[in-house]
UniProtKB/TrEMBL annotation:
<dbReference type="InterPro" id="IPR005148">
    <property type="entry name" value="Arg-tRNA-synth_N"/>
</dbReference>
<dbReference type="InterPro" id="IPR001412">
    <property type="entry name" value="aa-tRNA-synth_I_CS"/>
</dbReference>
<keyword id="KW-0648">Protein biosynthesis</keyword>
<keyword id="KW-0547">Nucleotide-binding</keyword>
<protein>
    <recommendedName>
        <fullName>Arginine--tRNA ligase</fullName>
        <ecNumber>6.1.1.19</ecNumber>
    </recommendedName>
</protein>
<dbReference type="GO" id="GO:0004814">
    <property type="term" value="F:arginine-tRNA ligase activity"/>
</dbReference>
<dbReference type="Pfam" id="PF05746">
    <property type="entry name" value="DALR_1"/>
</dbReference>
<dbReference type="Pfam" id="PF03485">
    <property type="entry name" value="Arg_tRNA_synt_N"/>
</dbReference>
<comment type="subunit">
    <text>Monomer.</text>
</comment>
<feature type="domain" description="Arginyl tRNA synthetase N-terminal">
    <location>
        <begin position="2"/>
        <end position="84"/>
    </location>
</feature>
<keyword id="KW-0067">ATP-binding</keyword>
<dbReference type="InterPro" id="IPR035684">
    <property type="entry name" value="ArgRS_core"/>
</dbReference>
<dbReference type="InterPro" id="IPR014729">
    <property type="entry name" value="Rossmann-like_a/b/a_fold"/>
</dbReference>
<comment type="similarity">
    <text>Belongs to the class-I aminoacyl-tRNA synthetase family.</text>
</comment>
<dbReference type="InterPro" id="IPR009080">
    <property type="entry name" value="tRNAsynth_Ia_anticodon-bd"/>
</dbReference>
<dbReference type="InterPro" id="IPR036695">
    <property type="entry name" value="Arg-tRNA-synth_N_sf"/>
</dbReference>
<keyword id="KW-0030">Aminoacyl-tRNA synthetase</keyword>
Length: 575
């Protein structure tokens, strides 16, 4: 089922074309004055001459709208105001809600999409940037999978390169079992720092670390085994964090830097054959037009370093080639913080020059800003350390538990625990996803856990309240049959319009991956529902009216649940 804008578009486009003699976009928009408005006659007046009002009148006459609209008016200088009839709204909504997918068919053009996200660094604590990548990437995976695309999750963890020389040496110093213990309980920062301190202070250690990197990269068996211990323990730890967060990432999604190790030489060879490599200071580089460093000097992508080693750039060239060529992806998403924008754009440009990326394939940087503390700086602990993610999540759950205990002391213990988890984690995710991802935001427990305003708990509560209406009515949920709907009150009409907008929002967000638009939509929907519930009694209504209103409640609850689910947020039935 098309959304309302599309339905009007389909009716008005041919009429505009008839009047203009060429295709015209009717530019249908939601409007304050009517439900929808087209202002296309205004610019058309300038283009073909004539008064916009007259053009609008001719368009309206040529258009077939009688079976859809209860009112079609020309206003002001030549706007066309359109209002759907209540019967049409009721029928469209009944059709939509009879369908589990709310009239949103699986995509007709399924693609293979890779999503590079989360990507923490082994033997190092996950930081808040990884939290954002994990939450946003997870929402992208859920939405695109739900639309019927083949989504390949790629957790590009950092587990290769120079720090691992020092980390392996440190592991040997403290003993394998002690190291495994520290890492598995999540003392990754402690482990990393201890290694770093030795590296900086002790020349001998530094020397050992350097030699160890060489051994690692040349495939020395013992070194690889020790390295694998580090990486495996880190992976186990990351999995516990993903478990707490409730994201889709699994053990099978780790494709870290080392995965590309044996593809790096061939990346160099291929770029060389294409004549794209240039030597600079001993390193093999690709120089692209339009990239300069702070001093204005050309900034290269370093493919192979002077010492023969490979860095982050080479690995990312391998990721992009592999995803295009071996995974056959046509849409490549990299959910990575904004500081890495230039790095990624350069990788994409090299891939285009090498003709690895050719249409319809495209690579997109799904960038995001930082999470700030209330001092407006990158979030840190009071002592100035980087915040440990699990601590942050745990505190959210503890605080949610206190809020829930106060709101609903009657919940049994198990339900209380589950709800506190859903609300605490949901609040953190929602606070992230409801802000424009390109912007920074301030991490504020109190605000994100508030039951008022644009928050996760507010939306969860709005749905739980609908569940409680059904419990009180003694009616099962979701309603087994939709039946007919009757819309007559303004608050019912407003709610119906809001519900019918869902499919358009989903379509838009699956392109832009601007999840705040879905979040804001759900917030608007919950607010419409609240107004409806204030104005239109449900349980005290009777007969068909009661049934129709219960149906509106049901569709609202289902839309909220699906919307939250697509954002990766649970929706408890009671709270
Ligand atoms: N591990 C990197 C970091 O912590 C992020 C990797 C992002 N993905 C990529 N393909 N470069 O900054």
């Amino acid at each position: 089922m098309a959304n309302l804008e599309e339905i009007l578009h389909q009716r008005l486009a041919p009429a505009f074309e008839k009047v203009a003699g060429a295709p015209v976009d009717p530019a249908i928009r939601r409007s304050q004055h009517a439900q929808f408005q087209s202002d296309a006659a205004l610019s058309l007046g300038r283009r073909i001459g004539g008064k916009p009002r007259d053009i609008a009148a001719r368009v309206v006459e040529a258009a077939q709208l009688g079976d859809l609209c209860s009112s079609v008016e020309i206003s002001g200088p030549g706007f066309i105001n359109l209002t759907f009839s209540d019967e049409v709204l009721a029928r469209l909504l009944a059709d939509t809600s009879a369908d589990e997918r709310f009239g949103l068919p699986q995509t007709k053009a399924p693609e293979t999409i890779t999503v590079d996200y989360s990507a923490p660094n082994a033997a190092k604590e996950m930081h808040v940037g990884h939290l954002r990548s994990t939450i946003i990437g997870d929402a992208a995976v859920r939405l695109l999978e739900w639309q019927g695309h083949t989504v390949i999750r790629q957790n590009h963890i950092g587990e290769w390169g120079t720090p691992f020389g020092m980390l392996v040496e440190h592991l040997l110093d403290i003993g394998e079992s002690e190291a495994a213990h520290e890492l598995s309980v999540g003392d990754l920062n402690g482990f990393y720092k201890a290694a770093r301190v030795k590296f900086d202070a002790d020349e001998q250690f530094k020397d050992r670390a350097r030699k160890r990197v060489v051994m690692l990269q040349s495939g020395d068996a013992t070194t690889l085994r020790l390295w694998k211990t580090l990486v495996d323990e880190s992976k186990k730890y990351f999995m516990t964090v993903y478990g707490i967060l409730g994201v889709c990432l699994t053990e099978d999604d780790f494709f870290g830097e080392s995965y590309y190790n044996d593809q790096l030489e061939s990346v160099v060879d291929e770029l060389d054959e294409l004549g794209l490599l240039r030597e600079s200071g001993g390193a093999q580089c690709v120089f692209l037009e339009g990239y300069t460093n702070r001093d204005g000097d050309p900034l290269p992508v370093i493919v192979k370093k002077g010492d023969g080693g490979f860095g982050y750039g080479a690995t990312d060239l391998a990721t992009i080639r592999h995803r295009l060529r071996n995974l056959n992806a046509t849409r490549l998403l990299y959910v990575v913080g904004l500081p890495q924008r230039q790095h990624l754009e350069m990788i994409y440009d090299v891939a285009r020059e090498a003709r690895w990326i050719t249409p319809p394939a495209r690579a997109e940087h799904v960038g995001f800003g930082s999470i700030l503390g209330d001092d407006g700086k990158i979030l840190r602990t009071r002592a100035g350390h980087s915040v440990k993610l699990v601590d942050l999540l745990e505190e959210a759950v503890v605080r949610a538990s206190a809020v829930i205990a106060q709101k609903n002391p009657e919940l049994d213990e198990k339900t209380h625990t589950d709800v506190a988890r859903a609300v605490g984690i949901g609040a953190v995710k929602y606070a992230d996803l409801s802000t424009d991802r390109m912007k920074d935001y301030v991490f504020d427990y109190e605000r994100m856990l508030s039951f008022e305003g644009n928050t996760g708990p507010y939306l969860q509560y709005a749905r739980a309240r609908i569940c409680s209406i059904f419990r009180r009515a003694g009616v099962e949920m979701p309603l087994p049959e939709v039946g007919t709907l009757a819309i007559s009150e303004p608050a019912e009409r407003a709610l119906a319009l809001e519900l019918l907008a869902f499919s358009g929002v989903i379509a838009e967000v699956s392109g832009s991956l601007e999840f705040h638009k879905l979040a804001n939509y759900l917030y608007g929907l919950a607010a419409s529902f609240t107004r409806f519930y204030e104005k239109c009694p449900v349980l005290r209504a009777e007969g068909d009216v009661k049934h129709s209103r219960l149906t509106l409640c049901d569709i609202t609850a289902r839309t909220l649940k699906l919307g939250l689910e697509l954002l990766g947020i649970e929706a408890p039935d009671r709270m």
